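I am still learning, so would you mind making up any protein sequence you like and the tokens describing how it folds?
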Amino acid sequence: MRYLSRTSHLAALPTLLCYLLLATPAAATSLAEVIERVRPAIVGVGTSYPPRQPIGDQRPNELRGTGFVVGDGNLVVTNYHVLPELLDFDNQQMLAVFSGRGGEARGHPAVIVGEDPLHDLALLRITGAPLPTMELGDASRVREGDPVAFTGFPIGAVLGLYPVTHRGMVSSVTPVARTADAARDLTAVQLQRMRNPFDVFQLDAIAYPGNSGSPVYDPETGRVLGVVNSVFVKESRESVLERPSGISYAIPVNWVRELLQRAEP
């Protein structure tokens, strides 16, 4: 029987180390790196007034929810319910998208180019230079137990435009079936959802009212898997902030794809 000498063992170490390095998969991208990459594409959605108003008549901007930029850099996805029902046209109030961070945030006039009330989605177009975009993923591959993250503006912009990220997992893929507290409170859209339910992602992560429209994405790739739709609460906004339920829902991104296709000229 032949034995390798100690010298032979030492000579083989570089080859063994090289093999191990090649066989070891590359380290996964950290969530911090992914957030840094996708954050510029996450925007606020709300209303604004012309920057030059009469002295003493300065009307504030309003941040109503979150959105994210897709496509050519001038399209923004958000929730349909984030859009204002009426605008103050007498004082030139306009729909707006807010990009940037902190004191460097700026507003972009926006127009609605696509609506999907049934799935609570809306598509906006902004003017000016294109913004960074997010890539859409494949919602059909999402499974219960998959980790997710979402970034948005949960409590508005009291201190400026500072996005907040939450992490959780998909706890269930379930038909949307939220009903009103009483039959008289049911809307036409809610009745349609009850007749034709579609699957949504239930998340075990805390979301707040301002998170509506936030992108739910793969924490390793940053690809969008869904859109935060609502928080499972039956109390007031103030109570939501004090006692969040820890359950939120997201509309699968396949409905965003359909909205984008319908909105193409």
User: Anything to note?
Assistant: The chain has a mean pLDDT of 81.
